[in-house]
Amino acid sequence: MIVLDDELIDRIAERIASKLRGEFYGDRGNEPSADKLELIDADTLADRISLSRSTIDRMTRAGRIPSVKAAKRRLYDLRDVVEALKN
Question: What is the per-residue pLDDT for 86?
């Protein structure tokens, strides 16, 4: 069983944020466009940032990544998650 302490979570978060910055900004160095809000579910988020679903759930419960609850579904804005992982 792997135990995730705060230091390990912070290192994971920084690796994810770094990877996503490259995916979003590429060589342009620009922020992603804010003209369209796209909410994705936890499984999609896990795939996009290469983490397990259980890690996404743990980070959500710990308040490390933002989400919204719509009916019975929890949804994420990938841009908000990237911003949260930067800090």
Answer: 84
DSSP string computed for 1-67 = -----HHHHHHHHHHHHHHHHHHHHTTTTPPPP-S---EEEHHHHHHHHT--HHHHHHHHHTTSS--
For the structural domain made of 6-27+36-86, what CATH number should be given?
A: 1.10.10
Q: Which amino acid is at 40?
A: I
What 9-12 contacts at long range (C-beta under 8 Å, 24+ apart), as own/partner pairs, is 9/59, 9/62, 9/64, 12/51, 12/55
Q: Would you say how long the chain is, in residues?
A: 87
State CA 46 to chain mean position distance: 8
Q: Domain residue spans in the chain?
A: 6-27+36-86
pTM above 0.90, yes or no: no
